[in-house]
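Hi team,

Filling in the usual template for the complex we talked about on Friday. All components are listed, including any nucleic acid strands or ligand strings, so the model treats them as one assembly.

SUBMITTER: L.P.
PURPOSE: interface mapping
COMPONENTS: two
RESIDUES: 760
SEQUENCES:
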Amino acid sequence: MELILIAVGVLGLIGLSSALILFFASHKFAVYEDPRIAQVSAVLPQANCGGCGYPGCSGFASACVKASADGNIEGKFCPVGGQPVMEQVAEILGLAVEAQAPRVAVVRCNGSCENRPRLVQFDGARSCRVQQMTGMGETGCAYGCLGCGDCVAACQFGAISMDAETGLPVVDEEKCTACGACSKACPRGIIEIRLKGPKGRRMVVLCNNKDKGAVANKACKASCIGCGKCVKTCEKFLAITLENNLAYIDAEKCKLCRKCEEACPKGAIHAFNFPPRKPKTEEPAAPVAAPADVPTAAPAEAPTAEKA
Amino acid sequence: MKTFRIGGVHPAENKLSAASPIRQAALPKQAVFSMFQHIGAPAKPVVQKGDIVKVGTLLAEAGGFVSAPVHSSVSGKVSKIDSVIDASGTRRQAIFVDVEGDEWEETIDRTPDLVRLEARPDLDAKAIVEKIKNAGIVGMGGATFPCHVKLSPPPGSKAECVIINAVECEPYLTADHRLMLEKPEQILVGVQLIMKAVGVERAYIGIENNKRDAIALMKAKAADYGVEVVPLKVKYPQGGEKQLIDAVIGRQVPPPPAIPISVGAVVQNVGTAYAIYEAVMKNKPLIERVITVTGKTLAQPSNLLARLGTPFSQLLEECGGVPENCGKIIGGGPMMGKALLNTEVPMTKGSSGLLLMPVEESGRGKTEPCIRCAKCVSACPMGLEPYLLSKLASNKLWDEAEAQDVVSCIECGSCQFTCPSNRPLLDMIRVGKTTVMGNIRARAAAAAAAKK
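RESULT (copied from the run log):
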C-alpha cells in the first residue's frame, strides 16, 4: 500500500513540475502568429491541392494575410472554394474582393479511337510522360492525348476519368475545381483551365495540333487544320485567333453565337452545355459536336512502341 | 582479359551478319536529310527548293559550336524543305532531294588508294579539327555527339591517350566488326589523325573477344601505326564511354560534371575514325555509313554501305523485305535502339543498325511487383540502384532522386534487361533523369540571374 502511495506521489510530482515547465515555456517562447491566419485557414477547403499556387491552404492563408497589409489580395484566388470562399476571406481581412468568374478544366483533344486510329502500340510503362519521351505516340498526332491518364492520377477531386470507348479523359464539371493539377500533369499541355461561361456554355476548339493542315488532317478526323474559316466568321468579335495552324477561341471575347461551330469543316469546334438544337440545323452542320453535358474530350493514344 | 569493374550483363550475341561482307546499297529515289542528325543545335538549311546539288554539296550549316553541318549524299534537285518523322519518333525539319544520276563534287578523292599520314606533313592539329568540323562528322556509335567538340578539349584539361571504341557490345550489330576487317589501315590512319589532333602519343583500340578475326588483323597492322589493340571480355555495356575507359586504362570517370577528358581520355568510335580518315585524307564529308540490317527472320542479314537519307524501307527491301511475323523494327541495337514508327524513316549519321524482331520476341513481359532481388543493382554499370531510382521517379521525389545520382544513368537498359519482374525500370528512370536535369538547369539559370 505504501509503495503505491509513493509511486502515485512521485508521478504526481513529476507531472506537476512538467506542467509548470511547459506552462512557462509556452509563454516565454511563444511565437506570435496573426490570429487571422488561423481564421482564414478555417474557411479554406483544406484540400491542400496547391491550385492557388501556394504550398497548401495554410500557405495560402499566410500569403493572403501578408498581402492584406498592402490593402488588397488581388491575384490570390482559391479555385476550389471559388467566389464564396474568397468573399469570406476578404471579410475576415476587411477587404473587398473582385469577382472571379468560375473556371473549369477542358480537354482540348477529340482524337478518339475512331477519329484517330492507332498506328503502333506502346509497350512501355503506362504513363503519358514516358510515352511523350518516346516521340509521337501511338497515333500520327504529335499533339493529341496520349491516353495513359496522368491527368486522372493528378486529380485530387475525382473529377476526371478515362472514357474507355474514346480513350480520352472526361471532366466532371460538377466536381472540377479548376485547380489546374491535371493541366500541369499533361505532358502535351492539352488541358486548359477555361472560363466556365454563362450556364456552363462555352465554345472550345477541341484540338491542340500545331502541324500544317495536311499533316494534321491525315493524323485525325477531328483535327484543326488551320484553315481559318472560323476566324472569318468571327470578324465581328475577333474572338478567334489562328496561331501555328491552330485556332483558339478567347473565352472573354466569345459571344457564344455558335457560327464558328458551323463553319468548321472538321467539326473541331465544340459547343458545351447548349440546349439541343432543332434537328434540322444540327444534323447537316455539325456531325461531331454533340452538345452534351459532359465536355467530351478527346484524344488519343500513344506513342510508339519503344525499347529501352 | 580486361573489362570494366561494375555491373554489366551478357545478352545473347546473335551476330547473324558477322560473316557477310559490306555491300553498297542502291541509291534511293529520294533522299531525306534531317536537320537533327546530331546532339546539339539543329543544322540550318543553306539550300532552297529547286537548287541542284551534287554528292558532297553542303545542304545545311552547323547551328552553333555543338552542332554539325549536313551534306548531300546524292546528286539531284532539292524538292522541298519540310518535316519528317525521324528515328527518334519526332517530327523534324528535313531537306528532301530527288535523286538524278550520281554526280560527285570534284574536290572529293574517290580513288581507293590509302593515303598515309606521312604523305600529308602539312596537316597540323588545327587543320585536322577544322576539316572534321566541316565534314559534319559526329560520333558514329549512335550517340552522334559532334566530333570536333570532343577533339577540342576545354582549357585546363589535357588528353593523355586516345581510346578507339571497337567494342560493338550491342547484340546483333556487326557494322564496326566488318569495317575493321575490310578497312583496317584506313581506320588506323584515322586513329593517327585523332592522336595528332589532340596531341597524344598513345592510342588503344578496345575490341571485344567475340571478334577474334578483327583482333588478330588489327594487331598485325596496328604495330606499324603506334596503336595498341586491347582485347576485352564480352560484356554489355562495354561500349559506354565511361565503361570503356575503365576497361582499357583502368580509370573511373567521376560523376557529372566530370567528362572523360577529366581522366585524360578521348574516346572515338571506330566508324568515326574511318569517317575522319575519309574526311581529312579524301576530302569526303560524312555522306554514307555502314549499317547492319539484321533479324532472326530476315532473309539476308547484311552490312550495307548506304547513303545517308536513304529510307529504311529500301534497306529492308535489299535484305529480303520485312518478314510476315515482324513485330517491331528497331533503329539501332536491341538494348539501346528505339522502335521505329514507320519504315519511311530516313537513315541518319547515327544509324548503326536496323533490327527486326519477330512478334514473339518484341513485346515486354507482364509487369510484376518488385521482389527486391537486387539484380538490377548488380547489373548497373554505373553503380546506381535502379529499383530505387524508378520508385523515386514514379513518386515524383525529384530531390531524393537527385541525391541518388539519377543523372549518372547512361540509359543502357541493363537493369530492365535483367529484371525478373519485367518492371519498366528505365522508363521511369528516364523520367526522373530528365526532370532532375531540368531542375539542375533551372537552378543554374536562377543562380546566374541572381549573380547579375
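MY TAKE: The radius of gyration of chain A is 27 Å. Confidence is low (pLDDT under 50) at residues 281-308 of chain A.

Thanks, L.
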